[in-house]
C-alpha cells in the first residue's frame, strides 16, 4: 500500500514539474549552485532548523537521518535540497512517504508536496565517507588502525554529509545526536548534554545550536586524545590522534587561546558567542585551519613537532589560533551573504589575528612578520598579469575559491590596516563593534561593513571603496627631493600606476622617514605622516630639513604600496644595510634590494654578494627568516637556469650551504637561531661535501653542538639526500621508513621517494596522478615533489604530454585535485622556449577553468621573470 501511494505521488510530481510555471532559475544536473539560484532559494525559505542523527561505526560508510524544518513563502516552483552522492532509503515530505526524485546532487521537491508556511522533511540515507578532506572525512591511523573522522564544509560541502540548503545566507539551528563507538569522542558546535550507553556504542546528545551558516557547523568523531583547561574565561579543550599526542604542546595552545579570547571580548565589545572553545588537530587537512563555530580544526602537519617549538613555530601557532578565533565573531556570528564576501571574512581575520598576536602575546613584532611574509606574497600576487580586485563576483560555488589567494588574505588585511590608520584606531574599532552588534546571528554584505565604518567616522567612503576594493593592482611610491647645501628645498611623493596597467591612483596615509649615516649606524632625522593621493603630493613640512642619505616613504608599513627607493637611498641601502638599527626598516630595505632583483634592476649575483657580506651580521630572527626566503627563491632560480650559469650556480649554492652551517655552529646557545640556520643548511645542501656531512650526521658519524636530530629533521635530511641521489640515500630511506611507520613517516618517505631523480619513479607516479590511482593525500605529496627545478632533463621528458593533457585533466578532475596539480605539474624550465610553449597553451585552451587558467598565466609570467633574472646576471 505504501509503495503504491508513493508511485502515485511520484507520477503526480513528475506531471506537475512538466507543466508548472516557475519563477526561479531551473537547476540542471550540476553539482554547483549559482548565486542566482541561491538568492532565489533564500528569498523563499526562512526559519530553517535541522535535527541530525548519525550512526558512526568506523567503516567506510555512515548513515544519517535528517529532519528538516523551514518556512516557505510560496509553492510556485520546485525546491531543491542539496545532498551529494548519497543513497536515500526513506523520504517523507509533510507526512507523505515519497520515492525521491534524486540525481545524486540534490533532491527536487514538487511544489505540490510543499506548504506555504511550515514544511517538515524527513530523509534517511547512507553515504561513503569522503577521503579528499571535504564532507565527513575518514582517516585510518597506520600506527594503530584507529579511525578518525572530521567534517569540513567550506565552501559548500556540508551536502557531502547531510541534506542541506548549502549556502551561507540560509542560517539554521542544528540539533545533533550521534551514535559512536564507546571509546570515541564526538565534538560539535555545542557541548554535549548527555552520553547514553547504547549496547556497544554511546549515544551523544547535543543541544540546539545558535543560528549558523552550513559551512560553519561541524561534527568530528573518533578516539581522540583530549586535554582540558578550565582556568580561563571559557572552557577550552584540545584534541589530537592518540598516536601523535606526544607531539602536541597543549600549554602553548591554551595560553594563546585564553589570551585571544580575552583580547577579542574586549575589542569587539561582545562576549565570545559559543560558550566553549574546542580545537582539533586532524590529518590530511586541505588547509591550515577552519573556523567551525566552537570546534575549530587545524592541519596536523603544520602544528605537530617532534622537538620543542621554535619561536617562529609558536608565533605561527598563535597567529593561526587568533585568525580562526577572529572568525568566531566575524564570519560565524556575522556571516557573509554569498561567497563574494569571503575575501572580507578572511582579510578581517588576517588583520585582527595579526593585531591580537602583536597585542596579546609575546610576539609584539607580529606586524614585522606579516610584512616580511604574507604581505610580500600579496605584492607579488597583485603584480601578476592575473591580478584581480579584492571584491569580485562569484557566479557559482565552483568559483568560491577562485580568488582565495594573497590578495584575498594579505592585501585585504593590509588595506584594512591602512584604513585603520586613515580613520584612526578608535573610530575603526567603534565601526567594527557597531557592525557586529547590528548584524549578529545574521548575514551581512560589504556595504553593511563599510557603512558601519563610514558612520563611525562621519565620512563618505564610497571613493575609498571603489579605489581599494573594486580596482586591482598595486601602486608604487617614490620620494623625489632636491637639496641645496645640506637642506631639502623640494620634496614630493610620486605615485605611479600599477605595473600591470591598472590606472587607479589611490589615497592613503603613510609615514615618510629621513635618515643620515653615522659612524656606526644610520640615524633617524624625522618621520612625518603624509596623506597622499594622485600622481604627485608635495610635502612642505620637510622643506628645510637636513638632506638625508636615505628616504623611506612608507616607514613602519602603514600603507599598501610598493616602495621604489630613489637612487641615493638604494645605494645607501646596499652599502650600509647593517648600520640600520631599526629592525622594521632594515627588513624593508632588505626587501627593496630583493625587489630590485625581481624587477631586473639589481643582478642576482650582486644581491647574493650583499647577502654573503651582510646576512652573517644579522641577529634579528625574523629578518634572517625573511632573507633566507629570498635565498631559497634564488636557489630555485639558479637550479632552473643552471644550463646557462652552471659554474656560478654551483658555487653560489655551496656558499649558501657553508654560510648556513657556519652560522649554525656560531649560534650554539641560541636554540631558535641555531635551528633556523641548521634547517637552512639542510635545504641548501646540494654539493658532495655538504651532502656527505649530512649523511654523517644522520648516521651518527658526526655531531654538531646544540643540534639534536629529531624525527622531522631526519626526514628532511633523507629527502635532501635522495633529491640529489647521494650515494646510499635510497638505503637510508628504506631503513628510516621501516623505523618510522607513522602517518607522517609514511608521507615523508613518499616525498623522499618521489623526489629522487629516477625516470622510472617519475613515470610511475605521473601515471598514478593522472589516473588518480592512489589516495588523494598521497597524490598531493607526489605532485609537490615530482619535479624539483634541478631535474630539468627528467621533467622535459613529460612536459609536452602534461601540457597536451592539461585541458582534459582540468575538465575531469575536481577543484581540490587541480589546486595542487596545476601549480606543480604545469612545466617550468626557465627558457624562452618554455615561455613560448606556455603562451601557446594559454591561447589554445580558452575553456580552462578560471583557477587553472590563472595558474597557467602566472607560471608563464614566472618563467619570463626567471629568464629576465638570468639575462641580467653579470658574468
TrEMBL record:
It is an enzyme of class 3 (hydrolase). It catalyses: Release of an N-terminal amino acid, Xaa-|-Yaa- from a peptide, amide or arylamide. Xaa is preferably Ala, but may be most amino acids including Pro (slow action). When a terminal hydrophobic residue is followed by a prolyl residue, the two may be released as an intact Xaa-Pro dipeptide. Residues 259-468 form the Peptidase M1 membrane alanine aminopeptidase domain. Residues 550-859 form the ERAP1-like C-terminal domain. Residues 49-215 form the Aminopeptidase N-like N-terminal domain. Pfam families: ERAP1_C, Peptidase_M1, Peptidase_M1_N. This is Aminopeptidase N. PANTHER family: PROTEASE M1 ZINC METALLOPROTEASE (PTHR11533), PUROMYCIN-SENSITIVE AMINOPEPTIDASE-RELATED (PTHR11533:SF174). Residues 1-18 form the signal peptide. Transmembrane segments: none annotated. It comes from Shewanella mangrovi. GO terms for biological process: peptide catabolic process; proteolysis. Keywords: Aminopeptidase, Hydrolase, Metal-binding, Metalloprotease, Protease, Signal, Zinc. SUPFAM superfamilies: Leukotriene A4 hydrolase N-terminal domain, Metalloproteases ('zincins'), catalytic domain. Its cofactor is Zn(2+). GO terms for molecular function: alanyl aminopeptidase activity; metalloaminopeptidase activity; peptide binding; zinc ion binding. InterPro entries: Aminopeptidase_N-like_N, Aminopeptidase_N-like_N_sf, ERAP1-like_C_dom, Pept_M1_aminopeptidase, Peptidase_M1, Peptidase_M1_aminopeptidases, Peptidase_M1_dom, Peptidase_M4/M1_CTD_sf.
